[in-house]
Amino acid sequence: MTTSEQVRDSPEGWVADHIRRYVETGGAEGHEWRPGVFTLLLTTRGRRSGDLRRTALIYGQDGDAYLVVASRGGSPRHPAWYLNLLADPEVTVQVGPDTFRARARTATPPEKPRLWRAMTSVWPAYDEYQTKTDREIPVVVLERI
């Protein structure tokens, strides 16, 4: 990914506003979304368009890695950002003022239960989202490169 390319932000109203504030303030606003709940900005490359796409996601940590959940609120379909990173796992991440390249991967079956618990401790609604869908909601591990 190059930094000179135009990035398209999530088109959803409140998410787009959240991302705009996050970017404009270098993470000073938006990093803490709700008390004790932090978000990062994930930029993926569109699997069909090739365009860079940015969205805000709740995150947790596992050592030096960042964790995000491809829940889409329990929708039967994976979120577009997850499908994009499956096609191209090299992503850009912004956590507060820190922006870096990372490689994204889906948590393996042996590590997923532990990472799922870590993420439901951050956002308990993930358990509810899983009950709404037959698809297994992935936990994504973002490792700095």
Features:
145 residues, alpha+beta, 4 helices, Pnp Oxidase, Chain A, nine-stranded mixed beta sheet, 9 strands
Description:
This protein has 145 residues and is α+β, with helices and mostly antiparallel strands. The protein has a single domain, classed as Pnp Oxidase, Chain A, CATH 2.30.110. The protein has four helices and nine strands, in the order E-H-E-E-E-E-E-H-E-E-H-H-E. Strands 1, 2, 3, 4, 5, 6, 7, 8 and 9 form a nine-stranded mixed β-sheet that branches. A hairpin with a 2-residue loop joins strand 5 (60-62) and strand 6. The two termini are 12 Å apart.
H and E string: EHEEEEEHEEHHE
CATH architecture: Roll
Helix content: 25-40%
Rg, nearest Å? 14 Å
Kindly, what is the distance between the CA atoms of the first and last residues, rounded to a whole number of angstroms? Answer: 12 Å
- Average pLDDT, rounded to a whole number, is 94
CATH superfamily: Electron Transport, Fmn-binding Protein, Chain A
Quick one: overall form? globular
Number of domains: 1
Structural class: alpha+beta
Question: How many strand segments?
Answer: 9
**Which fold name corresponds to the CATH topology?**
Pnp Oxidase, Chain A
Instruction: Indicate the CATH class.
Output: Mainly Beta
- DSSP strand content: 35-45%
| Number of discrete helical segments | 4
Largest sheet: 9 strands, mixed
Unreliable residue stretches: none
Pfam family, one: F420H2_quin_red
Catalytic activity: oxidized coenzyme F420-(gamma-L-Glu)(n) + a quinol + H(+) = reduced coenzyme F420-(gamma-L-Glu)(n) + a quinone
Family: Belongs to the F420H(2)-dependent quinone reductase family.
InterPro entries: F420H2_quin_Rdtase (IPR004378), Split_barrel_FMN-bd (IPR012349)
